[in-house]
Design a protein that fits this description.
By secondary structure, the protein is of the alpha+beta class. The chain has helices spanning 19-30, 36-46, 49-70, 81-99, 114-125, 134-155, 170-175, 181-255, 365-373, and strands at 257-263, 270-276, 281-287, 296-304, 307-314, 322-328, 336-345, 359-362.
Length: 377
């Protein structure tokens, strides 16, 4: 429903001349906060063609909002949703840890070639060993023996043990540059796992919200249909009760009913008066009455023993028709000769009928006499 930008009225106006006033009063109308007179004025304004096409959608939206607020309640998630989300999170964490494991590192053997270079240099400096003295040759032989031992150690180093070092060990920090992939892989996996977990929980929250909104929408639709069905049932019950009263009036008292036709020679208006004399009840069916001027009403009279007595006030609809059941009448037709309808002012209580009569009818004296003298069945 669109937002009202003007000032809200302090009370319901006698007429709604703008859509702003209709929108301002819509919440109070949907919540049933208007009085009977205010509600009648508001509904008359809504039925106008220029307002009905615009306000229909806003009325439905406001009604749906009120129903949703009235029916708001916690919604249980679908069975197994939490277990599925946790299983997916564990799988993502295991995959990230496997990708972030540091590789094996080994220390390559190094061959010391300095002793061999010194030996070759000394050999180049010796021209002929036979020309040197014996003592010098012995010293030279000892030096050669020491160089050969150094070469054998340099050429055949001690086997290197392959050790798996953790990411946080001191040896790893000493020999591994900070720019290698082995050091960068593990920290980068932690934010990735966090994003996966946050995304999984976000999807779970979105699913729960969608499920709750769908449930509330279905509940609101069912509640609206239930309200409509209740209104239809109440109307049907009212019509059935009205028909039962009519049938009881017409058929009660062993079907002792007198029919009086009321007409006017100058107009097309007419009426039928069904009088159950034994039960003292009657039904008046009027149609074609002309519209009344302001401050006037229709009145039904009975002429009994020459005296006009008011019976009931008649309020027809816009077409001039009305069905009035349950009219209290005498339990005998003796002395009743006429029935007529007049146009009376509202300012005073009727004591004498006005002229001319709007409708006029005569009670059949023969039928009334036979009815009064007929023995009970």
């Amino acid at each position: 429903m669109s937002e009202y930008k003007g000032e809200y009225p302090s009370a319901s106006p006698s007429e709604y001349t703008s859509l702003e006033l209709l929108r301002a009063t819509m919440p109070a109308y949907v919540l049933g906060a208007l009085t009977a007179d205010e509600r009648a004025i508001y509904e008359r304004a809504l039925r106008t063609p220029e307002n009905a096409s615009v306000m229909r959608g806003e009325f439905e939206a406001c009604q749906a909002t009120v129903n949703a607020l009235a029916s708001a309640q916690p919604v249980e998630p679908p069975a197994g949703l939490f277990d599925r989300v946790i299983t997916q999170v564990h799988a993502v964490i295991a995959q990230a840890e496997a990708a972030a494991a540091p590789p094996l590192e080994t220390t390559a053997p190094a061959i010391d070639r300095r002793a061999a270079d010194r030996r070759r240099g000394d050999d180049r400096r010796v021209d002929d060993p036979e020309d040197r003295p014996a003592e010098e040759r012995r010293q030279e032989d000892r030096r050669h023996e020491g160089r050969r031992h150094d070469d054998s150690v340099a050429v055949h180093p001690t086997p290197v043990r392959v050790v798996r070092m953790s990411r946080t060990s001191r040896a790893t920090r000493a020999v591994t540059p900070l720019s290698t992939n082995a050091v960068d892989a593990r920290p980068s996996a932690v934010p990735l796992v966090g994003w996966w977990v946050a995304g999984a929980f976000f999807l779970m929250l979105v699913g729960l919200g969608y499920y709750a909104a769908t449930t509330r929408r279905a509940h609101a639709e069912l509640d609206g249909r239930l309200r409509e069905n209740r209104v239809l049932i109440s109307r049907s019950e009212a019509r059935l009760a009205e028909r039962e009263r009519l049938m009881a009036t017409l058929l009660g008292g062993r079907a002792s009913v007198v029919l009086v036709n009321l007409r006017n020679a100058t107009t097309s208006a007419a009426a039928q008066f069904f009088w159950n004399a034994r039960e003292g009840r009657a039904i008046l069916n009027v149609f074609g009455l002309p519209p009344l001027s302001a401050g006037h009403r229709y009145q039904l009279w009975m002429l009994r023993d020459g005296v006009a007595t008011p019976v009931i006030e008649i309020t027809p609809n816009e077409a001039g028709a009305v069905l009035v059941p349950g009219i209290e009448m005498p339990t005998s037709t003796t002395g009743v000769t006429q029935l007529f309808v007049t146009d009376e002012p509202n300012a005073q209580k009727p004591t004498a009928p006005t002229f001319p009569h709007v409708l006029f009818g005569t009670v059949d004296a023969k039928a009334a006499l036979l009815l009064d003298t007929a023995p009970p069945r």
